[in-house]
């Protein structure tokens, strides 16, 4: 048998297994039932386009906003006609509402960070229900044709916990005691990733597909997929919180156009039972917190079909107990600082039989 006659069947097998394992289409509602997410909701859209001020009123009235307000960039939001009505996202999910207006976000020329462009709001699924320990969001996003990605920017995901202002915006790395966030980011050339503010427990920063930034968020599997501009893209993001809170068995998973793109287990998303999943974190802007991230022209994204699924069951995967090194409180570290220097002296005294 020649080498080439062996090669072809092998290549064929490799190709077929890639196709069946990685290329399989899974509609969002099928995924929801696979993960036993029994309750669901969707965010209301108006039936006609609206001015900016009517858009703001609509969002405040219908989207269950944290503190009853749009956090940033209210003037950059508007319900407009769908510019990509004829360019749907490929995949298997049904598009229940493809004819109505879509939500446009504007990023003004030169803008970067949530202070100068884009928009940020936290839509609580049910403000009087803190029992969600698993949540999944699905939405469609379109970028203007020829979108200049520059270095990157934030995209919507999920968040939770009683602190609605932490876990984003360059706030300190979280210890998981009052919030988590799992947004998406686009990076150079439209590369996608999950961008999380979660504790970096049990050495996850050393894993190949994780990039930790000591001050900000944690990038999970950068470049696992790439966004396309000038058409709709569908994102489905699942978060299952770790349980109990001192075991790193949390799980996040992402499907791009209904094809599996990212899964990451062994995460500690929270260190306290007060942190549960709250809802959609529509947070999007260029950057980054300096001008090198700024958009070189005014540009837009568009959103439609926000749907949420949830359950009161946390992750049931296995995970390790969070090692103590991650959990040093400031009191503990001060105590250690006070006593550690004396240990050599104590050892010498002991050896000399003084103690
Ligand atoms: C774990 O949870 C999944 C849903 O996320 C469920 O399908 C599975 O049956 C559960 N396994 C056990 C052992 O409970
Ligand atoms: C919100 O949650 C509360 C407590 O679980 C429940 O009684 C109520 O029906 C929920 N409201 C909606 C609109 O789902
Ligand atoms: C980050 O932590 C430092 C030191 O604990 C504190 O001084 C600073 O105010 C914190 N910054 C933010 C944005 O929370
Ligand atoms: C964007 O702003 C920069 C700096 O003000 C300016 O030089 C550039 O011409 C602007 N671009 C467009 C497309 O207006």
From TrEMBL:
Residues 97-306 form the Polysaccharide lyase domain. This is Polysaccharide lyase 14 domain-containing protein. Residues 1-23 form the signal peptide. It comes from Gloeophyllum trabeum (strain ATCC 11539 / FP-39264 / Madison 617). InterPro entries: Polysacc_lyase_14. Keywords: Signal.
